[in-house]
Amino acid sequence: MLADRNPQILAATAEVLKAGGHVVATHPVDVASRQSVQELAKVAAGLGEVINVVHTAGLSPVQASAKAILAVDLVGVALVLEVFAEVIAAGSAGVVVSSMGGHMLPALDPDADRALAFTPADELLDLPILSPEAVPNSGVAYALSKRANHLRVQAAAVTWGDRGARVNAISPGIVLTPWPRRRCQGPWPRAIRP
Fold it and tell me: DSSP assignment, residue 64?
């Protein structure tokens, strides 16, 4: 099953996979909405055991505002981890594609790390560390979101493990997709050009 917020991208990707001989179901999702993620999990579970979950949704600092990045890159990951923990099958695995950006922040206060790791998804944006004053731009929002992804996956590993499943975060470097190309046009081109 493939899920995406953009119906055109979802349909086009499904067609490519179908042309390769894969059986593909699709479902629209807005990862920033608990209801949408719950509906996705319900539909996925209705197809059979949920054995793999790969979360790749995300926005870059040149694509969106700080508010949008926190909603998708932070809350979206938290919601997927929480909701899919309820349907993931034993022996299964989840992967959250995060970013090297999450490793580039200076150390946070241990209480801030704990809050980013364990605060329920629906309450995350109420944390002082995520207030508009504390997150003045999309770059800070991105780095904090990706840092939180690593922390939340570590915390979720316990819940997923109780179901006999595992979950990991990966932090790729620059991958040549449309958004890094656009990012090269932005304020940090020297940091990301080969």
Answer: S
Please indicate whether residue 18 is annotated as part of the active site: no
Distance CA 50, CA 46 (A): 9
Helix (H) or strand (E) holding 140: helix 138-162
What is the CB-side half-sphere exposure of residue 108 using CA atoms within 13 A? 22
Q: Tell me the CATH number at 131.
A: 3.40.50.720
pLDDT in tens, 40-50: 999 999 999 99
User: Where does the pLDDT of residue 90 fall: very low under 50, low under 70, confident under 90, or very high at 90 and above?
Assistant: very high
- What is the pTM (predicted TM-score) of this model? 0.89
* Residue 14 included in any domain: no
| Residue 142 annotated among the catalytic residues of the structure | yes
CA separation for the pair 20, 148 (Å, rounded): 36
In a domain, 172, yes or no: yes
